Amino acid sequence: MKNFMDSHFLLNSDTAVQLFENGAVQLPIFDFHCHLSPQEIWENKPYANITQLWLGGDHYKWRAMRMHGIGEKYITGDADDWEKFQAWAETVPHLIGNPMYHWTHLELKTFFGIEKILNPENALEIWEECNRKLLLPEFRPRAFIAKSNVKFIGTTDDPLSMLEYHEKLNQDETFETIVAPTFRPDGALNLESASFEAWLDKLKNITGRNIDTLDEFVAALQQRVDYFHEHGGRASDHDIQKLDYAEISKDAADAIFNKRLQNQPISDAEIDNYRSYLLKELGKMYADKQWVMQLHMGAIRNTNTKMKKLLGTDTGFDSVGETNFAAGLSRFLDALDLEDKLPRTVLFNLNPKDNAIFAGMMGNYYEEGIPGKIQFGSGWWFNDHIDGMEKQMKDLANVGLLSHFIGMLTDSRSFLSYARHEYFRRILCNMVGDWVEQGLIPSDMPFLEKMIKKIGYYNAEQYFLQRQ
Questions:
Q1: What does the pLDDT average to over 49-62?
Q2: SS3 for 413?
Q3: What region does 372 belong to: left with phi over 0, alpha with psi -120 to 50, or beta?
Q4: HSE-up of 171 (CA within 13 Å, CB side)?
Q5: C-alpha closest to that of 130 among 142, 146, 144
Q6: Residue 336: which of 371, 299, 301, 374 has the closest Cα?
Q7: What is the pLDDT of residues 212-226, one digit of tens each?
Q8: How many CA atoms lie within 13 A of 401 on its CB side?
């Protein structure tokens, strides 16, 4: 019997151990998609206690606590931070089988040197030890980033953002990590949203444009893409809940846009047509800048109306959707490719039933000199566990080239979540090690160790920064 989370954690063969030790342990991190705050990095924000660092904004933990029957007072409510930590400690023993059980203890071990198993009995002891350490300068955001050897951070940013903290960070010669903005134009695409008018007014103010036509709107978005590019932006990201792509004329899209400006009702079909037009225009902008386009597809957002009214949006009440992406996605990528405007694109699916669709879609579009131009993104959100990550990589390998995979991303608001990269790398090494042990692939360790390094870091660096 193996000890819990020992040095061979998740590594079930000597081959897996060798791959991890020689291929993965010393790798830096290229975190191309996350939700960290550039302001907190710039200010090197101190945390008064582990609750503020660990539980604030963590929808994963909030959902688990709710499922355990914890009252909202102790999750997002007015309970004090110690009471919230107690509630989390009460929940943790019941997480066995959930990746958060591993993440919790991996983060305590990696960043705080604590190897105890968190539970209600030792919660106060761990609370006090973490809080003592959080008083030290080596337990602040920049130190966490340095300790994790993070070379690149891709934040997620509204086109309205002025990117002042990105600018400050990239001018700071004492901070070596690249912090790049990622263009997330959900506000532009969600024409039907009640907040669209306010978002549009802000865009007008920022760009100095009147924006009373679709042409002006697209020009304003191009202006923001240019601004992001000047501030180090090299990627976009999109929340795609469904994609019923259709080719429509500019005049037809303009008519829909004008209806919205005049507060006239617009149909679901018109919304889909508008999004199709604007997504294609944005895709062409990204191709011109040689950006990477990321599509996070298949979430159902804010499903609990009562809690949305109480807490607002994005508070942990989202689910896996069940939408047919095959035809719409294929038409969208093909429309851009027909005009030689298809950017490098990463496809993330939330429903694992779509794995074969997304993995197979990769091979339909390519460009000489760009290995894996279309990428099947790592197991995301409800799939970033052992089974989900293995399934995503095996489904990719079955119909594509695993060696060109760009690997793991954090997709988190926590500076402690970099431990998830180690988690992913152990799972990867164990999977490849199993193939060797079963005689499914040759024991060519130099090649396999190089492949692990590429998937763990170098493929992503080359893909996003176009480094050879």
A1: 94
A2: coil
A3: left
A4: 7
A5: 144
A6: 374
A7: 999 999 999 999 999
A8: 15
Which CATH number is associated with domain 47-139? 1.10.2020.10
Separation of alpha carbons 79 and 72, rounded Å: 9
Q: For the domain 14-46+148-465, what is the CATH superfamily, name and number?
A: Metal-dependent hydrolases (3.20.20.140)
Domain ranges of the chain: 14-46+148-465, 47-139
With residue 260 as reference, give the H or E element that holds it: helix 250-261
H or E segment to which residue 386 belongs: helix 386-399
Q: What is the C-alpha separation between 443 and 15, in angstroms, rounded? A: 9
Residue 427 has pLDDT above 70, yes or no: yes
User: Which three-class secondary structure state does DSSP give residue 359?
Assistant: helix
Closest among 66, 75, 117 to 96, alpha carbons compared: 117
Whose structure tokens read 């009562």? 306
399-410: pLDDT as tens digits: 999 999 999 999
In this structure, the number of other CB atoms found within 10 A of the CB of residue 213 comes to 13
Q: Which amino acid is at 190?
A: N
- Three-state SS string across 415-443, please? HHHHHHHHHHHHHHHHHHHHHHHCCCCCC
Q: In the structure, how many helices (H) and strands (E) does the chain have?
A: 21, 10
Q: What is the pTM of this model?
A: 0.96
CA distance 290 to 210: 29
Residues near 194 by beta carbon (within 8 Å), at least 6 away in sequence: none
DSSP 140: S
The closest of 302, 295, 254, 297 to 278, measured between CA atoms, is: 254
Which residues, 6+ apart, have CB-to-CB distance to 267 below 8 Å? none
